[in-house]
Design brief:
Elements (H helix, E strand, L loop, with lengths): L2 H7 L5 E5 L2 E4 H16 L9 E5 L4 H12 L3 E4 L6 H11 L3 E4 L4 H10 L2 E4 H4 L16 E7 L7 E6 H15 L6 E4 L6 H14 L2 E4 L5 H9 L5 E4 L1 H13 L2 H13 L2 E4 L6 H11 L4 E6 L3 E5 L13 E2 L4 E5 L13 E6 L6 E2 L3 H6 L7 E10 L2 E7 L4 E4 L2 E4 H8 L5 E11 L3 E10 L7 H11 L8 E4 L13 H9 L1
Parallel strand pairs: 3-4, 3-5, 5-6, 9-10, 11-12, 12-13, 24-25
Antiparallel strand pairs: 1-2, 7-8, 8-18, 13-14, 14-15, 16-17, 17-19, 19-20, 21-22, 23-24
Helix pairs in contact: 2-3, 4-5, 7-8, 9-11, 10-12
The structure holds malonyl-coenzyme A (MLC) and adenosine monophosphate.
């Protein structure tokens, strides 16, 4: 039986989810997931790694369905609620999805299912059935989940994690960060990326802890529960800490003191998914007395580096390798860097490293070195023992609000606009978002296009976080001798 299921069965009466409308115990979660597994199986004895895409409320519905898919032998493909029709279609087609489960499918998802020939089932329609007499034995080496991640290719790739990969991620975090059954954590991060899925939801359920789920980052509600002392652990991306600092500074003094003290009492607060600016780290500590633990990770590898739970949490640094993770820095000639203070690409090995990009052996092969290390594309140095992230090898990868975005993917979408002849997308540094997606656009000869029109068009074509926020209209793009657009030069135009 899957290890996470066995662990839940050992904690039947503990509360897995708590919300205004009540609680769900681990026993109830097991029952619901077993009944969903039976409904998904129908007459089959094992889904045999069928990819089931799903879009349901975060929290207990999501966990019950994720476990139901796993227990039936399927592969969970979580969808992004804010995706545009073309983004849904890409996921469904790439992962070869023929069944989608959704609670409130919107027009974009319905249209994508029709175009992909995938059958859509409502979540309610799947619930409430009998529990199967027996569920398949699912080996830990089998595929469990596909998370779509952007990169240096124009379209997101499906990163495949096995059950064993996910267990390695969760047990590494349990060991490194002292996760325990008494913990309680708010879940407001999106559930189509590993930060929300594995670090928050997965780890909490792995140790028998309690989760309070929100439909997205609802700042006021979260702060109210923080003030009430609801949580012992808190995990967020830097953008959220920036927003929280502003919110705390805007509160009346008495309330600010109470909320800050409540943050200060938490056992652990973690930041990750993007660089935490030193100023934010320091301001958070000044306000709350809580020193954030910054860590570094990636969809394909889970968490790789972390500041320690006990010991020095150094600002601007991501600390040391997580348990079970091997790290090396490699220079441009492919040689391992032994000394401190010399930058190199972070390469990773370990049981959490993903299996493959779904149906994309070339991309999978290209992401590993000949001797089996995963190339992250991130550059770091080691300083007094700790790793510090310097940046990325590619200018085409943008991090905005904690989301990794491909400039090439966004350029590809913009080029579908009938009035756009050429474009270049880049990330411009920003205090709140880390980087903001910015587009330089060349309009076709005799074409007519203005910024409000282009913004409105982008809203229909892309998820919120991919949409360019800043535009520059230029007569032509600067290119080098090889014909490649010179992006650093364009960045200067935005910063001027
Ligand atoms: C939204 N807005 C943006 C934006 N996203 N503006 C600039 N850049 C962006 N990226 C604008 C909206 O248009 C809107 O504008 C306003 O901000 C509020 O939008 P929202 O969608 O309601 O924002 P909010 O809910 O506050 O979302 C911010 C956020 C969210 C930080 C909570 O982006 C988020 O959940 N990020 C986390 C992503 C994540 O989990 N990444 C992990 C990947 S895994 P207006 O004008 O309408 O007000 C990974 C591995 C690892 O990286 O190491 O963890
Ligand atoms: P994703 O592919 O969405 O999982 O994003 C992973 C990427 O996020 C990494 O390759 C890094 O570029 C970035 N990242 C994650 N954590 C940190 C951090 N603490 N500091 C800097 N970058 C980070």
């Amino acid at each position: 039986m899957l290890e996470i299921v066995l662990r839940a069965a050992a904690n039947p009466d503990r509360i897995a989810f708590r919300s205004e409308s009540g609680t769900t115990t681990y026993e109830q979660l097991l029952q619901r997931s077993a009944s969903l597994a039976a409904a998904l199986l129908g007459d089959a004895s094992d889904l045999g790694e069928e990819r089931i895409a799903f879009l349901v409320r975060g929290g207990e519905d999501y966990a019950a369905l994720q476990w139901g898919i796993w227990r039936a032998g399927g592969v969970a493909v979580p969808l992004n609620r804010g995706a545009a029709m073309g983004e849904f279609l890409h996921v469904l087609r790439t992962a070869g999805v023929i069944r989608v489960v959704a609670d409130q499918p919107g027009a974009a998802l319905l249209e994508a299912c029709a175009a992909a020939g995938a059958l859509i089932t409502t979540f309610d329609g799947l619930q409430g059935g009998a529990i199967a007499a027996s569920l398949p034995e699912v080996d830990a080496g089998r595929r469990a989940m596909i998370v779509f991640t952007s990169g240096t290719t124009s379209k997101p790739k499906g990163s495949v994690a096995t059950h064993a990969n996910i267990v390695a991620m969760m047990s590494g975090m349990e060991q490194a960060w002292g996760w325990r059954a008494e913990d309680c954590i708010p879940l407001f991060l999106p559930l189509h990326h590993v930060h929300g899925i594995v670090n928050v939801l997965g780890c909490a359920l792995w140790v028998g802890a309690c989760v309070e789920a929100f439909e997205g980052f609802r700042q006021e509600q979260v702060l109210r529960r923080v003030e009430e002392g609801a949580y012992s652990v808190f995990m967020a991306v830097p953008t959220i800490y920036v927003k929280l600092i502003k919110a705390l500074e805007d509160l009346p003094e008495a309330q600010r003191a109470a909320v800050c003290a409540a943050f200060g009492r938490m056992r652990l607060m973690v930041s990750g998914s993007a660089a935490l600016p030193v100023t934010v780290h320091q301001r958070w500590e000044e306000l709350t007395g809580q020193r954030l633990l910054e860590r570094y990770g990636m969809t394909e590898i889970g968490m790789a580096l972390s500041n320690p739970l006990v010991g020095e949490r150094r600002s601007g640094s991501v600390g040391l390798p997580m348990p079970g993770v091997s790290i090396r820095l490699v220079d441009e000639a492919g040689k391992e860097i032994a000394s401190e203070d010399a930058p190199g690409e972070i390469q990773v090995r370990g049981p959490a490293v993903f299996l493959e990009y779904w149906n994309n052996p070339d991309a999978t092969a290209a992401s590993f070195t000949a001797d089996g290390w995963f190339r992250t594309g991130d550059v770091a140095i080691r300083e007094r023992g700790y790793y510090r992230i310097m940046g990325r090898q590619s200018v085409d990868i943008i991090k905005s609000g904690g989301y990794k975005l491909s400039a090439l993917e966004i350029e590809g979408v913009l080029l579908e606009h009938p009035q756009i002849a050429e474009c270049a997308v880049l990330g411009i540094p920003d205090q709140t978002w880390g980087e903001v997606v910015s587009a330089v656009v060349v309009v076709r000869e005799h074409g007519v296009l203005d910024e409000p029109g282009l913004r409105a068009w982008c809203e229909k074509q892309m998820s919120t976080y991919k949409q360019p926020r800043r535009f520059l209209f230029v007569p032509g793009l600067p290119r080098n001798a090889m014909g490649k657009v010179v992006k650093p030069g364009l960045r200067a135009l935005f910063q001027a």
